[in-house]
Design brief:
Elements: E1 4-9, E2 14-19, E3 24-30, H1 40-50, E4 59-64, H2 70-84, E5 88-93, H3 94-100, E6 107-111, E7 115-120, E8 126-129, H4 133-136, H5 142-155, H6 163-173, H7 178-186, H8 191-196, H9 199-207, H10 211-235, E9 241-247, H11 254-267, E10 272-276, H12 282-294
Parallel strand pairs: 1-4, 4-5, 6-9, 9-10
Antiparallel strand pairs: 1-2, 2-3, 6-7, 7-8
Helix pairs in contact: 1-2, 3-12, 5-9, 5-10, 9-10, 10-11
Length: 295
């Protein structure tokens, strides 16, 4: 009986599930993998740690953050073959597996450590918008909210910084001294993941009515909603009713959900949109791709 392994490699954590043939028989989880900043050795070591007790698979699909073209796909597939020994190994961009797992969804809006919008075009291929990393994009991502929280910590008077935010900063950076926080942030190999961890503190501040957080809730969900409207313009202009599926840790925030739905209606007034936040795990999309690859 063939075994199919799906691996969802993200900027915050990596999840894996082994299916045989329609039942999950093993699960694993570990640290982040992003091909844009992880070396091949780092990718291999992280995968080996996660898959150390995984039964041998027949077919593997790895869905990778930071997979930007054929060269990185070939490199990722080589690592998958070396680590798993599977006869069939496929590497795809993480959003491809996310959309694969989103049956009944017209457009998938991913907002985790980074952000991206994807859908299936009229030609049948999966098209994407946004992304581009934290320097040029990733609108409405956990990084952006974490950055807002850290800026507030650094700029606001001490009595205007919540106890929750202070605790989060100290836990993540190991200090409350502002100069040391800045130094440790820029000394971090993966500052995106580090800053993204402050998104939870941001959400708690938003829930308690902190002014900086309420202001940010008018900016970052709007940028992401505007990006969705541009994706609709480019790929779904003739479709008046669309179902938007939202994936990623950002959507655990009720405050961000509400702001996004409101601003999505503002930016897409000519479309009837249904927004769905409960979706199957993205890693199951990787399993589906692994199954097809073995046929």
């Amino acid at each position: 009986m063939p075994k199919y392994l799906g691996i969802d490699c993200g900027g915050t954590r990596t999840r894996a599930v082994l299916v045989e043939p329609d039942r999950a028989v093993w699960r694993g989880e570990g640290g982040p993998i992003n091909l844009a900043w992880s070396s091949p050795d780092q990718v291999a070591n992280t995968l080996k740690e996660i898959l150390s007790d995984c039964p041998a698979p027949d077919s593997v699909c790895g869905a990778f953050a930071g997979l930007l073209g054929p060269d990185s796909a070939n490199l990722a597939e080589s690592v998958l073959r070396d680590v798993t020994g599977a006869s069939s190994c496929v590497a795809v961009a993480d959003f491809v597996a996310a959309f694969e797992a989103s049956e009944g969804i017209d457009i998938c809006v991913i907002a985790g450590t980074g952000s991206l919008i994807c859908s299936r075009s009229a030609r049948g291929d999966i098209v994407s918008s946004g992304g581009r990393g934290y320097v040029l994009g990733d609108e409405g991502s956990a990084f952006q909210y974490g950055r807002e929280a850290l800026l507030h910590f650094l700029d606001a008077p001490p009595d205007d910084v919540s106890a929750e935010l202070r605790r989060a900063v100290e836990e993540i950076f190991g200090t409350l001294k502002k100069n040391e926080v800045i130094s440790r942030l820029y000394g971090e190999a993966n500052l995106v993941t580090r800053l993204s961890k402050l998104a939870c503190a941001f959400d708690r501040d938003a829930g308690s009515g902190a002014i900086y957080a309420l202001k940010a809730l008018r900016i970052h969900p709007a940028k992401l909603a505007h990006r969705v409207s541009m994706h609709i313009r480019d790929h779904h202009q003739q479709t008046t009713r669309l179902t938007i599926g939202c994936r990623g840790g950002v959507w655990n925030s009720a405050s961000i959900r509400r702001a996004f739905i409101e601003l999505l209606a503002f930016w897409c007034p000519s479309h009837a949109l249904e927004t769905v936040f409960e979706l199957p795990e993205a890693v199951l999309g990787a399993v589906s791709i692994a199954k097809r690859a073995l046929r």
